[in-house]
Write a structure and sequence with these properties.
mainly alpha; two-stranded parallel sheet; 335 residues
Length: 335
């Protein structure tokens, strides 16, 4: 492989470092390496395989004899289609992955803040129940404290979402297609391979937490003195940690997939990625309506009917129904 890379370096050394030329070199290198691996599989020695590959592809040392076509790309309506694809160099790729990691951490923490808000909303009436019974504070005051905490934590969470969104906005041009700098693909593949064990462990832990989290709902059956709402709070906290792991490591994996064009980003058109974004947009809009509505219903049940318990059941029910809805939307959009 090194010999083929060195050969192509010498051939393309005199050519301008434009995106079109770099794309042609990358395509040619990919074809030559594929042929090289096939010859090696047939039992050829390394020197024989390299010699046959160079011979089969002919003399490409003359730039005039080498047709170079601009790479195809799919652009949205109204976009400029006259220019070349931008070059993604090593420095930009490193900065993009660092930004993705920071944004993933912020989004994950934002999710935790939103869940903490819901936890305090449910927890406040339980914590102040003693004071309510003694007449120190009104029952409505306990609910109001929980609502204030919910609004504070949700505000912090939304702020983190916005900051993460602005961080990633500077790399929106990647959606329109790009050309990798020669040699960068190999480096990214190595980094991706090194990252995958950590990703796998994180997903296993996250899925395990989600599977085990409902156990908290049955603690009151095992320990009669344990109040059922506390089980829900534990469940929410455990799920929040699991979601953080999914977001934190999932966004990093998505960054490698985008640059290496894997999974949903396979092909120049990024059609799979566009469909996935469409599904995310739909679920995001629905979530922005459903979860605040659930919180409003819970508050109405609490303030007007004193049904703080079992009114808290609206949250796990809403979460389960929304998860089913999200899965259905993703499946339908990808068809």
């Amino acid at each position: 492989m090194d010999a083929i890379n060195a050969y192509l370096d010498s051939v393309f050394a005199a050519l301008p470092k434009t995106a079109v030329i770099l794309h042609a070199r990358q395509a040619l290198q990919s074809s030559m390496e594929k042929k090289y691996r096939a010859l090696k599989a047939d039992g050829k020695s390394e020197s024989e395989a390299i010699s046959m590959v160079i011979s089969e592809f002919g003399d490409i040392s003359a730039p005039k004899a080498m047709p170079v076509a601009a790479p195809e790309k799919e652009t949205p309506e109204g976009a400029d289609t006259t220019g070349e694809l931008p070059l993604l160099d090593q420095e930009t790729a490193r900065a993009y992955m660092a930004t993705s990691s920071q944004a993933a951490r912020q989004i994950g923490l934002g999710v935790i803040c939103c869940v903490l808000g819901v936890i305090f909303l449910i927890l406040a009436p339980l914590l102040f129940d003693v004071f309510v019974k003694r007449g120190v504070i009104a029952e409505s005051a306990a609910g109001a404290i929980g609502l204030i905490m919910l609004l504070i934590f949700v505000t912090v969470g939304v702020a983190l979402f916005i900051i993460a969104g602005f961080r990633m906005e500077r790399y929106a041009w990647l959606e329109q297609g790009f050309v990798l700098q020669p040699g960068l693909k190999e480096d990214l593949e190595k980094q991706h391979e090194q990252f995958m064990p950590s990703f796998t462990v994180a997903i296993i832990i996250g899925v395990g937490l989600c599977i085990l989290s409902p156990i908290a709902l049955f603690l009151s059956a095992v320990f009669p003195s344990f109040k059922a709402p506390y089980g829900l709070l534990i469940l929410l906290a455990v799920v929040a940690v699991a979601v953080y792991l999914f977001v934190r490591f999932g966004m990093i994996k998505d960054g490698y997939a985008r640059m290496l064009r894997l999974g949903d980003y396979t092909g120049r058109s990024f059609e799979g990625g566009k469909k996935r974004k469409k599904a995310e947009k739909i679920t995001s809009v629905v979530a922005s309506v459903v979860f605040p509505l659930a919180a409003a219903v819970y508050l109405l049940m609490g303030f007007l009917g004193g049904l703080w318990h079992p009114g808290w059941l609206i949250f796990p029910i809403t979460g389960i129904l929304f998860a089913i809805f999200s899965s259905l939307i993703e499946a339908l959009v990808k068809k």
